[in-house]
Amino acid sequence: MSTTLPPGAELELGAEPRLLRSHDILCVRAANPGPFTLSGTNTWLVGRAPAWLIDPGPLEDGHMRRVRGAIVARGGLGGIALTHGHRDHSEAAAALRAEHGAPLAAARGEADVMLAAGVRFGPLQAVPTPGHAPDHVAFVGAGACFTGDAVLGQGSVFISPDEGAMAAYLRALEGLRRREDFSVICPGHGPVVWEAKAKLQEYLEHRAERERALLLALDDGRRSVRELLDAAWPEVPLPLRGAARATLAAHLDKLGSEGRLPAGVERPAGGAGA
Ligand SMILES: [Zn+2]
């Protein structure tokens, strides 16, 4: 993948927070690295006086200090938007909401603004992107798409096997790919993606590739979770095996709803737990 940045679009180097100068978007990265969070959760701020915050991240002292500093530097907080309810994105939401008296927007749970397709929240517009979580939304605003865990800066995401999740996820990615109102992806984890359309295409192709591998394995007569994982997710390291099992279930459900699933296929039990 190319790492060439448009002129003036580079991330400011050095200590965090980092500024995308071309879009005046600030990234504060939490120090919670891991197999699911890559180098940590990205908290984003757009706009000034007030600023709008996407995914406050974990309730961790250093992260909170940097987020608070960024809010002050940008002239106060207009609102807090959640891409989804997982703790690595949402844990600090209640504290910031109480401190700043700023409204919280989410697609589920205790929110001041309930998000749904097209709902506007300050400079942000909500775009439902179910799949990783049923309540997952992306936000388009300031010429960027804030994708949470629907699209990461590197690697792929796991899809939770809720009913219709995989098909809905693919439709959402396709919808984002067709939009013309953003040029950059600001993901929930990992680096900024300047080739936004190429990344969305890559994600769509990645899911199609997994499905092809799965269909081949099914054609070969493989039926157990272990056989199907070995065939379609051969490279997945142990810590991500549970996530692969969940995503396998979501793929099997899609094939089932399309009448393409042979009899006797074992479906993984339980969720991915993250
Ligand atoms: Zn996450």
How would you describe this structure to a colleague?
46% of the residues are buried. The protein is of the alpha/beta class and 274 residues long. The two termini are 28 Å apart. Strands 1-2-3-4-5-6-7 form a 7-stranded mixed sheet, covered by helices on one side. The chain has a domain at 18-195: Ribonuclease Z/Hydroxyacylglutathione hydrolase-like (Metallo-beta-lactamase, Chain A), CATH 3.60.15.10. α4 (165-178) packs antiparallel against α5 (196-219) and α5 (196-219) crosses α6 (225-232). Residues 1-15 have low confidence and may be disordered. It has helices at residues 61-73, 87-90, 93-100, 165-178, 196-219, 225-232, 241-257, and strands at residues 18-20, 25-29, 42-46, 51-54, 77-81, 104-106, 113-114, 120-121, 124-128, 137-141, 144-148, 184-187. The structure holds zinc ion. The site of zinc ion has 9 residues, from α2.
Cα-to-Cα separation, first versus last residue: 28 Å
- Biggest β-sheet, characterized? 7 strands, mixed
Average pLDDT taken over every residue:
92
Uncertain runs are 1-15
Q: What's the name of the CATH homologous superfamily of the domain at 18-195?
A: Ribonuclease Z/Hydroxyacylglutathione hydrolase-like
Please tally the β strands and state the result.
12
Helix and strand pattern: EEEEHEHHEEEEEEHEHHH
Rg (CA only): 19 Å
